Amino acid sequence: VPWGKALTPALLRAALERNPDVKAVFLTHNETSTGVTNPLPELAAIVRDHGALVVVDAVSSAGGLPLLTDEWGLDFVLSGSQKAWMCPPGLTITAIGPRAWDAYQSAAYHRFFWDFEAARKAAARGMTPTTPPLTAFYAFDAALDMMLEEGIDRVWDRHAALGDRTRSGVEALGLALFADPTTYSNTVTAVTMPKGVSAKDVTGLMKRNHDVVVGAGQGYLTDAMVRIGHMGWCNEADIDGCLVALGDAVEQVQRGTN
Ligand SMILES: Cc1ncc(COP(=O)(O)O)c(C=O)c1O
What we know:
Elements (H helix, E strand, L loop, with lengths): L8 H10 L5 E5 L1 E2 L4 E2 L2 H11 L2 E5 L18 E5 L11 E5 L1 H9 L9 H9 L9 H17 L1 H21 L3 E2 L10 E5 L6 H12 L4 E2 L8 E5 L6 H20 L3
Parallel strand pairs: 1-4, 4-5
Antiparallel strand pairs: 2-3, 5-6, 7-8, 8-10, 9-10
Helix pairs in contact: 1-2, 6-8, 7-8
The structure holds pyridoxal-5'-phosphate.
């Protein structure tokens, strides 16, 4: 899949036809490195048709983008507290369905740290298998209360609105969006830097002059892209401030006054 594009159902179907023995497919719901959201419900349906388990990296989607684990037939979903859940890093959040538990029973490999049965048994006693990171749990509890109070549909709508606001603001600055327009993510926006403008210089100026922290690109795009996260604890004023900082930094680099 080329960077900036989504995995298409046709490509996935063809890959499974070429590899009929596949038992599980790992799908990334939201591609944080390129600002792309994959069409998860369609992809999951193809994997299930094939009889394989649907394993989903929802690290930068869960809590920010619609994610219907049961309705979409997802068997194993994994997320991290540091993204749309508004918490410090440290907690893995999972949803594990009955087919995944069946696979657990028949899996023969050794396990210890990632033994979900140990976690399930401990959870039944309100515990974790090892020392619980209590401060992270308190933060997560507070975050969940905030999300419940807002209502999950409104949380998703807020992310959609923030995504729109970020993208139109970026375009109003005369900058280009990296992702294919049909796949835009509502939790992270990837902005292509104009020719000759270093993303490292831009992110450095945004931090130094505006106290705004954004990511540069990854891999071959490290210095060619700036990524704006707008998930979790984020509102319109944050986006507007970030866009001012971005426009200012790009202009300074272009003028050579940085
Ligand atoms: C889509 C996605 N998957 C996995 C990870 C890795 O998460 P962690 O650094 O918590 O292991 C990230 C982190 O940014 C991510 O965005």
